[in-house]
Fold these 4 entries.
Entry 1:
Amino acid sequence: TGTTPDRTVSDAVQSDTAVESRTKTGRGYTVQVASYRDRRDADALAEKLKRKGYQAFVTEARLAGKGVWYRVRIGRFETRKEASAFGESLKLKERSLKSVYVAEYD
C-alpha cells in the first residue's frame, strides 16, 4: 500500500511500508531536513528524530569540490506532492527544523 495525498506528520511516523513510486528512478521521494559535514552530527539528529517516532535516516553524498556531506532524511513518499506536504507539516510541528527539501529517494 502507498501513501495518501492528505498524509500528515503522524501518518508518516513509524511507516515502513514499501511505496510504489512515480519518479524516473522508480524509488519515490523523501524529505531532507539537514546536511552536515560531520557524520556524528547527522547521526545525532537522526536518532533524535527516531526517538520522536519519525522514520529518519542518514545518507552520504560526495559533492564535487565540497567533499562528503551527511544528509538527514525522513520517510519515503510516492509523489513529490506528498513529500512536500509532509515537509510543510513537519516544519510546523518541529520548529527546530528551519527548512526542508524534497529529494528523490536513493
Entry 2:
Amino acid sequence: FMLGSAFLQPAIRMTLPILAESISNSKPDPIYITLDAEGVLYVNQSKIAFNQFVAAFNALYHPGSDQNVVVRADQEVTYQRFMEVVFILKKQGVEDIGLEHDVKAR
C-alpha cells in the first residue's frame, strides 16, 4: 500500500536515483477471450481465425506472470467449442481461467 500527497513535504531532502525506465508493480492487463453466438473467436477486441488463436494469444500472454485470462462465451456457443478454447489455454500454461457471466435480475 502506497500513499502519496502533494501537500506533504519530505522531512529529508534527497536526490533520488534515475533509472532508464520505471519499475511497475501493477498487474498486466487481463486478456479477454470471447466467443460470440456464432462461435467467432476474439482475443481482446481482435477477431481471430480459430487456427490463429494460439499465436494471437501467445503474443499477449506472459507465462509465470499473474496476468488474468478471462473467457466470455455467448450462451449459444456449443460446449464443445468452449472446451476447445479452455483446453488450448491450459496447454499454453494458463493455470487460472476466469469465466465472465451476467447476474440474473431478482
Entry 3:
Amino acid sequence: GDYFWNSGMFIWSAQGPYNKLRAQNRGSGNEVHHLIEKRFLRNTNFYGSPKDMMSVVLTKAQHRAFTNEWRKQLAYGRLYSPDAVQFAASIVYADYPELLAIVNRYF
C-alpha cells in the first residue's frame, strides 16, 4: 500500500473504507482506525455505515494514541454538536493535516 509520512516519521500505511482496510490487514498486526469515532457518526453528514467510513491503518500504539486523544477531547457518555466534534478533530489531528482534510469532508 501507500505510505504516508509526517515530519519524517511513518504514520499510516493506507487509507480507505474501514471494511476494506480491515480485510486487507487481517493478521498484519496493524489496526484500522476510524478517522471519526463511530460514536460521532450521527454528528456528521455521512449517512452510511461505520464500516464504510474513511479509515487508516495504524500500528497498535498509534491507534491507541489517537483513540486516547479523542477520549481526552470528548468524554464518553455525553452528546456533542457537530461543531464540537469537528473542533475536537482539529486538535486530535493537528499534526496530521492530511488526516484532518479527510475528516473535514464529513462536516
Entry 4:
Amino acid sequence: VVSFVILLAGMYLIHRKQTVGKSGREILAVVAYGLVLSAMTAGAITYCVQQRDFGSLLTAAGAVGFFVSDNILIWLLSGYESRLQGAVLLLFYYGGVFLIAAGQVVG
C-alpha cells in the first residue's frame, strides 16, 4: 500500500501541470491510468519483497522501468518532446519489458 501511494503521488506531482485546462474526461483518463500503472508497479515491488528471489526482483525492476517509460510517454504526448526523451523512453520501455519477461522465465 505504501509503495502504491508513493508511486501515485509521484505521478501526480510530475504531471499535475499537464492537466490544467483539460476536460474532466481527459483528467479522469490520466487519473485512471495512473491508478492502474501505480497498482501494477506496487504489486510487483510488493511481490518481490515477499518472495525475495531473483525472478521477482527482475519482474519488479521491469515494472519500475515500464512505470518510468509510461511517465516519459505522458510528457511526450503533452508536447515536451526531444530526441533524448524518445531514446530514454525506448530504453526504459524495452528494458522493462525484457526484465518482466526474464523474471517470468527465471522465476
